[in-house]
Specification:
- This protein is α/β, with parallel strands linked by helices and 281 residues long.
- The strands form two sheets. It has a nine-stranded mixed sheet, sandwiched between helices.
- Helix 1 crosses helix 8, helix 8 runs antiparallel to helix 9 and helix 9 crosses helix 10.
- The longest helix has 16 residues.
- The two termini are 26 Å apart.
């Protein structure tokens, strides 16, 4: 069993579906509503756990009911969570609207946030990991500290640079694989990483600008969390020693499964589900 460490956020998500997105000044009536835990980090941690990895996850929460909900959900999903409680802070909250084509728009709010000191307390988890998985939903100083600790202990780092912000040279120097989408990749122009995997939505992914791994031909119902599913699976496959192309094949397959289902946590596939499809391909 491989060990994956994840630093990110977890929070309370309200997911609504509607026929179309709002125009300015328009009120749209939702056709369904669903509440669950969300956050790129927690989604990626759960995706890795469903692949059979031992996963340790660091996030910040408020001293509120949503924070307790996150704790319960992560435990139920097999993720060992270290949740730094920020008194007076509010657990991150997100509103997700999905249209009839499966595309989504997300608005999030964060007040409880990690600090570099929180990451220092998580050092044993990073030191014992095969791969450290990061995103951009935490402050830059938090990722910088996490990368520094990974370098100290010789741990490989995957950075999912979402939502986009510039990557500092110090962080970039410690990243082994970066996984932007097409828009995020434009912001990374001129930066050099050992490996770059650009996710292309329904077109799969592009490895190091040279090799494309196609997605499965599925009807997208809800694309929310597909990138997180991709990253969690990719981390486990690389930790297990798979070549990058094969790891991406697994990750793309898992993401393709996820978009064929509604919402996020229920959509993340298990290892057996992915393996079955790959065996039939």
């Amino acid at each position: 069993m491989v060990n994956i460490a994840v630093v990110g956020i977890c929070g309370h998500s309200v997911c609504m579906t509607a026929d179309h997105f709002h125009e300015k000044g328009e009120t749209v009536v939702a056709t369904s509503v669903h509440e669950e835990m969300g956050g790129k980090g927690s989604n990626q941690a759960i995706a890795a756990s469903r692949m059979g990895a031992a996963v340790r996850f660091l996030a910040a929460v408020g001293d509120d009911d949503a924070g307790e909900m996150c704790r319960r959900t992560l435990a139920a999903c097999g993720v060992e969570a270290t949740l730094a409680v920020k008194p007076g802070g509010r657990t991150p909250f997100a509103y997700i609207l999905t249209d009839k084509h499966g595309e989504n728009r997300v608005t999030e709010y964060k007040s409880a946030e990690l600090t570099p000191a929180d990451v220092d307390g998580f050092e044993p988890a990073i030191a014992g990991a095969d791969i450290l998985l990061l995103q951009h939903e935490v402050p830059p100083a938090v990722n910088a500290r996490a990368v520094a600790l990974a370098q100290k202990h010789g741990v490989r780092v995957i950075l999912n640079p979402a939502p986009y912000r510039p990557v500092s040279p110090a962080v970039a120097a410690g990243v082994d694989t970066v996984t932007p989408n097409e828009q995020e990749a434009k912001g990374l122009t001129g930066m050099v990483f050992p490996h770059t995997v650009v996710t292309l939505g329904g077109e799969g992914c592009l490895i190091d600008g040279a090799h494309r791994v196609p997605a499965l031909p599925v009807t997208a119902v809800d694309t929310t969390g597909a990138g997180d599913t991709f990253n969690g699976i990719l981390a486990v496959c690389l930790a297990e020693g798979m070549p990058l192309t094969e790891a991406c094949r697994w990750a793309v397959t898992g993401a393709s499964i996820s978009v064929s289902r509604r919402y996020v946590l229920d959509a993340i596939p298990t290892r057996n589900e992915i393996e079955k499809i790959l065996e039939e391909a």
